[in-house]
Amino acid sequence: MIAARRLARASCSAAVVLLGLIAVAASARAPDDAATAWTSGPLDVVVALPGPADPAAVAALVGRTIPYYEEGVGTPDAAAEPLGALKVAGARAEDDGRTLILATDPHPRPARYVLPLDGLGRLGKVVYTLDGVEASWSAGAEPGPEPTWKDGLPDLDVRGFGRLATSPRRARRAADLRKPGRLRLDAQVVLDAGKVEGTIGSPAEIVECLFGDGENTIEKTESGGSRVKFTIADASQPVFLSLTVATGPDVPAGPIRIDLDGAAPAGSKPPRFLLPWVSSALATSKPEPLAIPDLAGGDPAKGEEAFFSKEALCSQCHVVRGKGGQVGPDLTTIGRKGVEHLYRSIAVPTESITPDFVTYTVSLKDGRVAAGVVRAEGPDAIRVVDAEAKSATFPRAEIEEFRPGTTSIMPVGLVPVLGEARLRDIVAYLMKTSGK
């Protein structure tokens, strides 16, 4: 199970129901003639349609891209600059064409993802985010090692599976929760910075809970539910929550609550829930103080020679004017961002990771581990490219864990390796290729 643990900051309030801010929650209140989308994992998107989709239109989605934008409200207008885009590598329909399952590149960061559905009638574009909870249900009182299914949930209210009338998939999930089993809910909870204490209360029996510092003691309530007290010494980063509750025909369905001790400070916001496999490092990283040397006076011709040399190895990962490797971003126009940005990208590569080139650690069921930039390779496989530009392909079905990295695949310490003169020449070359 992927457990992205403490990665960003935001705020919370006392005595609040765990209400999701995810687009899925908004979609649950959408009219019956609207499409809705959510992620059920880092490499796929589920789309609930108001009616059957034409098979040809579904097939035409393959090869299209899903641009993503800075977080905010509504659909970005045509003038907005996307942070990046995911490729749709596979598309299939279920439920007589009313549910689409899209295989995509990894979702790299919290953002607004805009899925184009204009080829499917009048549906236009659907916005979804990476807010929410990962729900894993296992049938039976003694579940096996693999869950029966995994899916996204707007919040910790299990009734969310029954709110979306247009989704046969969610209706099946809601029906399963009335059977004996175990439902595990995993998320990153974004709270106010500082020490936080409180209680988690559930109308259903809590079987296991991991939240905050130290062990969590589960207490039964008079109504048959459970509560867990927790303490978080420092909530400046999201806190990983893993909660398992019992399901069955007689188990009350309702929201799981978090009540924080003390009064909520002015300006507090409700807790935010990020899916457990999301890396929020890109959204929260801030430039560190850095002295920028004088990089004027370089020779672009020498810089080009250095860029494509075996010593610098820049071209092993980067393309300039169509020449080079594709492990990292195309640097043809990077000079437009200025000399300071160029230098910082070399000196502190983790500070300016391009979202489309976030690295991941992929653990497989047979024990193998691969790390690098991940791309979708058709509907059933992924390709991992490591720091040496070596590529390996793995079946999606064999992935045990998919964990985002917090550092750039580009090695640190390149400034002293390149030397002042060669660095100045490379900067001159990249400034020239960008037209600066």
Describe this structure in words.
- It contains 9 helices and 25 strands.
- Strand 19 (319-320) and strand 20 form a beta hairpin.
- Helices cover 15% and strands 32% of the residues.
- The chain has helices at residues 23-28, 55-59, 168-176, 281-284, 300-307, 314-317, 339-347, 414-418, 420-433, and strands at 16-17, 36-41, 44-48, 65-69, 84-94, 99-104, 112-116, 125-128, 133-139, 149-153, 181-190, 196-202, 206-210, 218-220, 226-232, 239-247, 257-260, 272-274, 319-320, 323-324, 359-364, 369-376, 381-385, 391-395, 399-404.
- It folds into 4 domains: 23-128, Immunoglobulin-like (Sandwich), CATH 2.60.40; 132-282, Jelly Rolls (Sandwich), CATH 2.60.120; 285-354 and 410-433, Cytochrome Bc1 Complex, Chain D, domain 2, CATH 1.10.760.10; 359-404, Roll (SH3 type barrels).
- The longest helix is centred in the last third of the chain and has 14 residues, at 420-433.
- It has 436 residues and is of the alpha+beta class.
- The strands form 5 sheets. A 7-stranded antiparallel β-sheet has the order 2-3-6-5-4-7-8. Strands 9, 10, 11, 13, 16 and 18 form a 6-stranded antiparallel β-sheet that branches. Strands 1-17-12-15-14 form a 5-stranded antiparallel β-sheet, with no helix packed on it.
